[in-house]
From TrEMBL:
Keywords: ATP-binding, Biotin biosynthesis, Cytoplasm, Ligase, Magnesium, Metal-binding, Nucleotide-binding. It holds the Pfam family AAA_26. Its cofactor is Mg(2+). This is ATP-dependent dethiobiotin synthetase BioD. NCBIfam families: bioD (TIGR00347). GO terms for cellular component: cytosol. Mg(2+) binds at S15, D40, E97. The active site is at K31. Its main location: cytoplasm.
């Protein structure tokens, strides 16, 4: 199975969750676009304790921590959807982590969410909980539905807010796959704990 991890915004917890699902499935991991440093691939790799997962090189590594379309322009690169090719992997599972939120642009016409739509692979949406996150989450869900992108479920990241979670799930019509607490420290043990929880819901 190939799964694309997207989010309602930057710093929603995509890399944290990508490490969890990579550990749970003993999957390979790939981040097509890296904008700025440190690299998310290295972050995820250090959190994985299984010996099966492989970490594939990014298609593009951009120097500026900014929207990919702008970071690419600074580096003198033109990102185009058709230039992205799914890597071949012997592992039956591949976790693909997007850059920023679903509608982060890769150029003036195309967006990060165009990648799973092009490849026809399902998406898991990471939503961090804050004032305004209901609006941002429902807008993202509506865009996924409009595009016909298959949504496997939602992951809530942060201190529990039951009223927000309830209204989002009511309109999402997909399950909550995992709730991630506000952890003081993120390490391999924490990743394994959440991986075990996630497997019950996949």
């Amino acid at each position: 199975m190939k799964i694309f991890i997207t989010a309602i915004g930057t710093d929603s917890g995509k890399s944290f969750f990508s490490a969890i699902i990579t550990e749970a499935l003993k999957a390979d991991y790939w981040k097509p676009i890296q904008a700025g440093f440190p690299r998310d691939t290295e972050y995820v790799k250090q959190l994985i304790s299984n010996k099966i997962s492989n970490f594939l090189p990014e298609a593009y590594v951009l120097n500026t921590p900014a929207s990919p379309h702008w970071a690419a322009e600074i580096d003198g690169i033109k990102l185009k959807l058709n230039d992205f090719v799914l890597p071949r992997t012997e592992n039956k599972h591949l976790v693909i982590e997007g850059a920023g939120g679903a509608l982060v642009p890769i150029n003036n016409e195309e967006f990060v969410i165009d990648l799973p739509q092009k490849w026809q692979i399902p998406v898991i949406l990471v939503a961090n909980l804050y004032l305004g996150s209901i609006n941002h989450t429902l807008l993202t869900l509506n865009e996924l539905k409009r595009r016909g992108v298959q949504l496997l479920g939602i992951v809530f990241n942060g201190s529990s807010q039951p009223s927000s979670e309830e209204i989002i799930l009511k309109h999402a019509d997909v399950p909550c796959l995992l709730k991630i607490d506000q952890e003081k420290e993120i390490n391999q043990e924490i990743i394994r704990k959440y991986a075990e929880e996630l497997l019950k819901n996949l």
